[in-house]
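Example record

One chain of 119 residues, shown exactly as stored in the release files.
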Amino acid sequence: QVQLVESGGGSVQPGEALRLSCAASGSIVSIYDMEWYRQAPGKQRELVATITSGGSTIYADSVKGRFTISRDNPRNTVYLQMNSLKVEDTAVYYCNAFVRTIPGVMKYWGKGTLVTVSS
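Predicted structure tokens for this chain:
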């Protein structure tokens, strides 16, 4: 079994920064892509950023230049540095990871962390 736990959410004002973390634990053999999604009230969940096991990154257009995804492979942790936050970044942020365990590869999700950007 694999668990993903996000942390670092909170309430900030526009223009401020937050850093989210997501740590994976359990019977992990290896981790492939790790991703951050978000879901704003009344909207569908959307992909924010992806990082491969080799460190390649992809970002949604709405966060390019403001957000940075990174990972610490020995710690099985992915981060999302969010700068210049906007009101429209308010959402629950979820991480996921494609994880290889003994039985095979599955996509696991965390339970989310709330980010509120408000003046």
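Notes: The chain is about 0% helix and 60% strand.
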